[in-house]
């Protein structure tokens, strides 16, 4: 009997040791997913001029290489989180990773614009499944408190480092091999996830009798956003007519209205409309809609300007943008938490958005022979370091302030949707402004390659529109966000929460 008891104790200890060892591998595997998502954002921006040249894309078409990813990501983000809870977090994480890896492989093979855009859309869908599942696996694997906070901080910091690494890797691959390899590089990481996750991550799901996913809601909101973006960009294409543009805009609004009707009648709506009763949440999401759009517009124009006008190589352009990315991490980690505690989320959000607007507007000083330190580096540090480093965590805190614990995840997911949707739509608006202004400056129809001076005129107009968007966000935050919502409850460690929300 003693031998049997001793054997049982040894088996139990070995099981605990295995469980502990397995948990140590869970976080690194999940971090690969957010690393790839962040890397994909920056690595593609650096390669855009090369993609434009090889696939003969117009300035109107080019933003869709990035924008269609963000819009699909935004449209299916909440559905991805819901599916992970009900169908199994590990299962959805693996499905999303497989789809992301397959789509990346297709992107790498693409020699036609339509195939690249289709694969980028599939990448966005894969990310929408993968990222919410990864976060929910962390929250169900690590106990609430210091352990979970540490895990989420590492997860978020990995995203920031992926963005920085993507700038450099994108430049190196595009310069010395081909832009196709910026997508191929994702494939081995996706395979590694699929190989190891079944042996490391335990399956978990919400046990409930009724299952409802609101697929209709995800499809209609995504279709509405895509139609809205297309209506904006096609208005300046050769052959476009006012009637066609108005018709597409009306169709987009009708589809979005259908989405609202679907949400009102759904048993388990993707976005329960009751959450919009919170003025704080509504204002934070509207302000979030204006944050990533100007940021992505800044990256888009900066990459084209450095390579097409100043003739930087892709690797040199990526190194030129790197300081802003590094400063973002430092500001978010060491400055923003203290700023939130000292000034509250309202003023912190306003400061972040105004820094974003100032940096974008200052970049409009670019010319044929701009000085890097004064005209490129300073705006970049304002946009990426201060604007994104302060504004992103501050709005993340504001979006969930005053929300019940049962709906914290919903509020956070809604803010993520607003960020990504704003990024995709703002790119479409900016591209339309750039194209029209460049064509007007040269006195030719849209679609003709403009001269350097006309291209600069387009860049200037696009940057000013993006800056105006960030100013609008600052006004919304100033009027709508409550002063210090961190003090409404029990002063829930704003400092820790802000660090956890850093995921670029």
What would you say about this model in short?
Its main location: membrane. The protein is mainly alpha-helical and 504 residues long.
Note down, in words, how this protein is organized.
This protein is an all-alpha fold and 504 residues long. The chain has three domains: 19-203, Up-down Bundle (Growth Hormone, Chain: A), CATH 1.20.1250; 215-265; 275-504, Growth Hormone, Chain: A (Up-down Bundle). 80% of the residues lie in helices and 0% in strands. The protein has helices spanning 2-55, 63-87, 89-109, 113-141, 146-176, 181-184, 186-200, 215-234, 242-265, 279-289, 292-309, 314-363, 372-400, 408-442, 452-480, 494-500. Helix 2 packs antiparallel against helix 8 (215-234) and helix 10 (279-289) runs antiparallel to helix 13. The termini are far apart. 54% of the residues are buried. Mean pLDDT is 78; it is low at 1-18 and 485-500.
